[in-house]
Write a structure and sequence with these properties.
- The protein has nine helices and no strands.
- The protein is globular, with a radius of gyration of 19 Å.
- It has two domains: 127 residues, no CATH class; 133 residues, no CATH class.
- Helix 4 runs antiparallel to helix 5 and helix 8 runs antiparallel to helix 9.
- It starts with a helix and ends with a helix.
- It is mostly helical.
């Protein structure tokens, strides 16, 4: 399993980096595809709790969300979410069985936000004037945070966190994640954003560490409720798309808004 995991990473990561480097429509198409795949996995998770949400409406909402961000029109994203909500409600009105309409409407709307709106910030970040450098900074911090948590938690994790959603998480893993985040910021400073001040480096490391861990735990919460180990098996050795992008779903918006507000 470890060899499979490494092999898939060696194959997929360069493709992701190349698309992020080139940007433009190819990167938006990639993010849109990932967003749809993530929503479909989310819909399958929902099935495990005896709910069936409209996949087509949700997937379409995710695609439209990503491309509204590609066009630089975040206001359009709000319009898309509004239209998606109208379609979901219409879908419920036309059903013979209208039970659970509140739950299904809420779950579908959350799914579009979670897998569509959150991830679309990758495209918005890439389209900024220094977008390529920002995306590489985001990936360096997020991946090293996840790697630090996994490596240290696996090797030294003895003191478990009091979180039922993810009982295998440990305090040692958190320390590894925090260390990885700071290492990622230092690498970003040396390679991508040489103008980062010490204050921004510390702030980014802490923010990205916190939201990244929250993203990981949020996905664990969903899987725990659905009583599944992975969201899917589409990525050999890694589980599903949501399993691989859970942290990035949260760190991408955090990075985008930090850049817009402070850099």
């Amino acid at each position: 399993m470890l060899l499979t995991r490494i092999a898939v990473s060696v194959f997929c990561i360069p493709i992701f980096l190349l698309l992020a480097y080139n940007g433009r429509m190819a990167f938006a198409l990639f993010v849109g595809t990932v967003s749809v795949a993530a929503f479909l996995e989310f819909a399958n998770l929902v099935k495990h709790v005896k709910r069936d949400i409209p996949k087509f409406v949700g997937a379409l909402g995710c695609v439209c969300m990503v491309f509204s961000f590609y066009r630089g029109e975040q206001v359009l994203a709000g319009v898309i979410l509004f239209v998606a909500l109208l379609l979901i409600l219409t879908f419920q009105l036309l059903k013979n069985d209208i039970s659970d309409s509140i739950v299904i409407t809420g779950i579908t709307s959350f799914g579009i936000i979670y897998t569509g709106w959150f991830l679309a910030h990758l495209v918005a970040l890439r389209n900024l004037p220094l977008g390529k450098k920002y995306v590489f900074t985001l990936l360096a911090i997020t991946w090293l945070t996840d790697s630090g948590a996994y490596a240290v938690g696996t090797l030294f994790g003895k003191h478990k966190l009091p979180i039922k959603a993810s009982p295998n998480k440990s305090y040692e893993g958190l320390i590894g994640a925090c260390t990885g985040s700071f290492v990622g910021v230092i690498i970003a400073k040396l390679m991508f954003l040489k103008t980062l001040t010490v204050v921004h480096m510390i702030a980014l490391a802490i923010i990205m560490f916190l939201v990244g861990q929250l993203g990981d735990l949020a996905e664990s919460l969903l899987k725990r409720d659905a009583k599944v180990k992975d969201t899917d098996s589409s990525i050999p050795g890694h589980g599903g798309v949501l399993d691989r992008f859970d942290s990035l779903l949260f760190t991408a918006p955090a990075m985008f808004y930090y850049v817009k507000l402070f850099l």
